[in-house]
Amino acid sequence: MSSRILIIGACGQIGTELTTRLREIYGAENVIASDINTRNLELVNSGPFEIIDAKNFNAIKDCCKNYNIDTVYLMAALLSATGEKYPMEAWDLNMNSLFHVLNLAKGSTIKKVYWPSSIAVFGPTTPRENTPQHTICEPTTVYGITKQVGERWCEYYHEKYGVDVRSLRYPGIISHKAMPGGGTTDYAVEIYHEAIKTGKYECFLSEQTSLPMMFMDDAINATIDLMRAPSENLSIRSSYNLSAITFTPEDIANSIKTEIPEFEISYQPDFRQAIADSWPSSIDDSVARNDWNWQHRYDLNAMTKVMLEELGKKYRDN
Ligand code: AKB
Q1: What domain count does the chain have?
Q2: C-alpha to C-alpha distance for 280 and 33, rounded to whole angstroms
Q3: pTM above 0.85, yes or no
Q4: Whole-angstrom Cα distance, residue 21 to residue 47?
Q5: Protein residues with CB under 6 Å of any ligand 1 atom
Q6: Whose CA is nearest to atom 7 of ligand 1?
Q7: Looking at the structure, do residues 164 and 197 belong to the same domain, yes or no?
Q8: FRET pair for 118, CA 20 to 30 Å: which of 51, 84, 145, 169?
Q9: What is the model's pLDDT at position 316?
Q10: Ligand 1: distance of its center to the CA of 240 in Å?
Q11: Is residue 28 located within the same domain as residue 142?
Q12: If we measure between CA atoms, which residue out of 307, 81, 303, 123 comes closest to residue 214?
C-alpha cells in the first residue's frame, strides 16, 4: 500500500539522507520534506517541501491534512552539546514537537510515527560495556533527559492510545552529505573533513574516549527496516538499542592514516568530554537483531574509505 510521508526536520544530518532514500522508495511526490528553512536546495527541489517549525502544532496538523499524511518522521531536535548551552530551548523543541506528533497520531489518519532516541538516554550509572536494552537510565544532559522522557511518552501513547510509534537509540552517526550540528559525536565527522582539507585535526575529546558509532547508510537502513517491520514483531515501544561499531578518536585517526599516512591528530578536550564520559562505550542491540533482523554492514575501515572518497570528490569539485 502506498504511503504519504511527512519528514519534520528534513534538512538536518539524518533528515537529509532519510528524505532522499524515502523519495527513492515511495516516489518523490509522496514524501513531503519540511524544515524551518530552505537551506538544502537539493532537497527543496527534489519533491514537495514545506516550511514548518516543529514547535507549531497547527502547522504540522495543516500539513498532514493537506497532504493526507499517514506516516510522520520527526527528526527535528537540539542535540547534546547545544542542549547544554540552551537547556530550555532543547526541552521546548524536543518535547513539544514530540507531543504535537503523538497527539496528532492519536485517533487520526496518521498510522505510523518515527521518533529518534539516542545513546544519550544512558548516564554514568549505566553499565558502560555492552549496555543492555533494559538498564539504568539516569542521563545527565538535557538532551538525554528529553530522550528518556520522550521514550516513556512513546510507550505510553502506544499502550494507552494504540499509536504505532517506533524508535531507535541512535549512536553517533557519521556521514558525508549534511553536517551534524551540536552533538558530542560530531568529532567523528569533522575529522574526515579536516583530514581532506588540512591533513590535521584537533579533537575535542581525549584519545581514549570510546563511543558507539554508525555509518549513515546503516542508520538509514535501520530506520526504514524498523518502519517496515510488522507491528506484531516489535517488542519495544520505547526505543530500540542499536549498534554497529565502537571506536576512540585514536582508532579513527589510525584508520584515516591507512589512507592518508601524513594525517595528524591532537587532543584538546572541552566540555563535551564530560558528556562523552557519561555515555556507554558499546551497546547490546540483540533485541533489535532478533525482533526485526537488524544487521549493520560498515566497520570502521569500510566507513573511512567511503568518507574519504566522497569528501575528496566534494572538495575537489567545489
Ligand atoms: C549527540 O552527540 O548529541 C548525538 C547523539 C549521540 O544523539 N549525535
Answers
A1: 2
A2: 33
A3: yes
A4: 12
A5: 79-80, 118-120, 143, 170, 172, 183-185
A6: 118
A7: no
A8: 51
A9: 87
A10: 16
A11: yes
A12: 303
Residue 143 in domain: yes
Q: What pLDDT score does 109 carry?
A: 82
Q: What are the cell numbers at 233?
A: 514483531
Confidence (pLDDT) at 107: 79
Active-site annotation holds for 143: yes
Question: Which candidate in 26, 67, 86, 143 is catalytic?
Answer: 143
Centre of ligand 1 to C-alpha 182, Å, is 8
Shared-domain flag, residues 135 and 197: no
* Ligand 1 atom index nearest CA of 147: 7
Question: Distance (Å, rounded) from C-alpha 225 to C-alpha 168?
Answer: 11
List C-alpha distances in Å: 233 to 219, 226, 227, 291. Answer: 20, 10, 11, 6
Same domain, 228 and 304: no
In a domain, 112, yes or no: yes
Do 54 and 68 fall within a single domain?
Answer: yes
Residue 96 forms part of a structural domain: yes
Per-residue confidence (pLDDT) for residue 3, from 0 to 100: 83
Same domain for 252 and 228, yes or no, is no
The CATH number of the domain holding residue 188 is 3.90.25.10
Distance 23 CA to ligand 1 centre (A): 25
Residue with CA nearest ligand 1 atom 1: 183
Cα angle 155, 228, 58 (rounded to 5 degrees) comes to 60
Residues 152 and 250 in one domain: no
Residue ranges of the chain with pLDDT lower than 50?
none
Q: What are phi and psi of 269, to 5 degrees?
A: -60, 140
Task: Return the ligand 1 atom nearest residue 118 CA.
Answer: 7
In CATH, what number is assigned to the domain containing residue 71?
3.40.50.720
Instruction: For residue range 26-83, list pLDDT tens digits in order.
Output: 999 999 999 998 888 889 999 999 999 999 999 999 999 999 999 999 999 999 999 9
Position in ligand 1 atom list of the atom nearest CA 211: 6
Q: How far is the CA of 65 from the centre of ligand 1 (A)?
A: 32
The Cα–Cα gap between 158 and 237 comes to: 7
Does residue 204 share a domain with residue 272? yes
Range of the domain at 196: 175-213+245-282+298-317
